[in-house]
Amino acid sequence: MRVKSGMVRLRQRFQHCLRDQILETIGAEEDVDLEIQHLRQVLSR
What we know:
By secondary structure, the protein is mainly α. It is 82% helix and 0% strand. It has one domain. It contains two helices and no strands. The N and C termini lie far apart (33 Å).
């Protein structure tokens, strides 16, 4: 159970860091979700 909870925390931390970095890059909080969606599309190709 510890490994699973550790992975959940790691994933949450990564998501938070990614959102912060995107926000710092584009500067518009309302566009962060669109940028993440675009990134997922590009990486899934």
